[in-house]
């Protein structure tokens, strides 16, 4: 009966506090939020209203909308409905502004810790004797690990090839390695993406080119095809790409010839055939420039061969390749194929390491070296490999140790 009499005038609100207290408050729609807050404080904090600041130090929050209710507005004006949940929260004390003396002390401390400028350095070192240091020689002596690592890998590959040639199963092992290298993911085209483009009416060869330029993205490839529809060079092959089928066939023939030869009858011939297989495998891993980077650099006016060389030296990094083309072009592409001095203390220390010696007899190590040689970004993958990781770790440690001395 009471619900019928007070329907639409009295609201039943569920009030909660941060301490976990909960209760129901019945209030009229014209009750102000301040009055409601006083009733809530009387319920959860008896005697607290003796301090007039208690009400102002608390606030009511509408749980659903997360809105802080305004004290001067009524329950109706705040659009509070029957059965709504309110949260009674104590306001946080405002942060005090720092005193001027504290600010001045902090600023003084910062000035004392500030690094000296060029004038201060010149003034402090005015009485010191001048020295002429050849910065180019100093920079040259600070060997870069990535540059040296490439030379180390070139020489270690030669050593690994000689060691693996003594393995009676070497031919069979490298026939499998040859097959692994045939499965080059970069040469594959997503058949589903290609079919989607050809069903739209684009020629297959043009669609393949668009997919390779746009990392197999159908949407980006379609936009490229539409944008270059009237381009006379749209069907031209991608710059820097060379077919790899011939080396593959040659490597397969060499592997078959080596497999057919008896180790007892023609041991030396088998070694020669293995050397040929190694060369064919190396050719398969020849550098393949990023087509987008090639096109972008050629549009700047550089020759295609220069662009490919720049990208090879700088691991397909377009910005670094551009700086190389505009600079002194060091190192040269020919320097990339040079190994380290085999009589140097660094190379001798690496070869004398037992972990490296054992790793060089593993065909997977040779494949890892070949991969890192042409794809330096894959170094992390081989560092984390349980078979090749310890070898790479020892090489890095030996280099860092000798580089400090």
Automatic annotation (TrEMBL):
Region (Disordered): 232-272
Subcellular location, record wording: Cytoplasm
CDD domains: UBA1_KPC2, UBA2_KPC2, Ubl_KPC2
Pfam families found in the cross-reference section: UBA_7, UBL_UBAC1
Keyword Nucleotidyltransferase: no
InterPro entries from the UniProt entry: STI1_HS-bd, UBA, UBA-like_sf, UBA1_UBAC1, UBA2_UBAC1, UBAC1, Ubiquitin-like_domsf, UBL_UBAC1
Record keywords: Cytoplasm, Repeat, Ubl conjugation pathway
Cytoplasm among keywords: yes
GO CC list: cytoplasm; ubiquitin ligase complex
UniProt pathway: Protein modification; protein ubiquitination
Residues in the signal sequence: none
One BP term from GO: protein ubiquitination
Low complexity compositional bias, start-end: 236-264
SMART domains documented for this protein: STI1, UBA
Gene3D superfamilies with a match to the protein in the record: 1.10.260.100, DNA helicase RuvA subunit, C-terminal domain, Phosphatidylinositol 3-kinase Catalytic Subunit, Chain A, domain 1
Domain UBA residue range list: 182-228, 288-328
Protein name per Swiss-Prot or TrEMBL: Ubiquitin-associated domain-containing protein 1
Lineage of source species: Eukaryota, Metazoa, Chordata, Craniata, Vertebrata
């Amino acid at each position: 009966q009471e619900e019928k009499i007070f329907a639409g005038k009295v609201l039943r609100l569920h009030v909660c506090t941060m301490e976990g207290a909960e209760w129901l408050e019945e209030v009229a729609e014209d009750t102000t939020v301040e009055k409601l807050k006083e009733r809530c404080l009387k319920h959860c904090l008896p005697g607290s209203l003796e301090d007039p600041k208690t009400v102002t130090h608390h606030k009511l929050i509408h749980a659903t909308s997360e809105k802080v209710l305004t004290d001067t507005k009524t329950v109706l004006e705040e659009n509070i409905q029957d059965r709504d949940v309110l949260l009674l929260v104590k306001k946080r004390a405002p942060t005090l502004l720092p005193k001027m003396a504290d600010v001045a002390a902090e600023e003084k401390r910062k000035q004392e810790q500030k690094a000296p400028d060029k004038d201060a350095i010149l003034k402090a070192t005015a009485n010191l004797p001048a020295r002429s240091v050849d910065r180019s020689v100093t920079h040259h002596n600070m060997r870069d690990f990535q540059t040296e690592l490439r030379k180390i890998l070139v020489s270690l590959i030669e050593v690994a090839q000689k060691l693996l040639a003594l393995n009676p199963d070497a031919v069979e092992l490298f026939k499998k390695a040859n097959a692994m290298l045939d499965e080059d993911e970069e040469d594959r085209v997503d058949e589903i993406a290609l079919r989607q483009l050809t069903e739209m009416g684009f020629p297959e060869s043009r669609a393949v080119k668009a997919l390779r330029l746009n990392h197999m993205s159908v949407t980006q490839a379609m936009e490229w095809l539409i944008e270059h529809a009237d381009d006379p060079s749209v069907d031209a092959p991608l710059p820097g790409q060379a077919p790899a089928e011939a080396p593959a066939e040659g490597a397969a023939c060499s592997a078959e010839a080596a497999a057919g030869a008896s180790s007892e009858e023609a041991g030396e011939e088998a070694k020669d055939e293995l050397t040929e297989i190694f060369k064919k495998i190396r050719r398969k891993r020849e550098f393949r420039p990023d087509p987008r980077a090639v096109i972008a650099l050629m549009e700047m006016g550089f020759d295609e061969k220069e662009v490919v060389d720049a990208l090879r030296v700088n691991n397909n990094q377009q910005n670094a390749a551009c700086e190389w083309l505009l600079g002194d072009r060091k190192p040269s592409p020919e320097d990339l194929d040079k190994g380290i001095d085999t009589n140097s203390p660094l190379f001798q220390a690496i070869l004398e390491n037992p972990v490296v010696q054992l790793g060089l007899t593993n065909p997977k190590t040779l494949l890892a070296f070949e991969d890192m040689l042409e794809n330096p970004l894959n170094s992390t993958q081989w560092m984390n490999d349980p078979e090749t990781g310890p070898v790479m770790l020892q090489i890095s440690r030996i280099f860092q140790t000798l580089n400090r001395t």
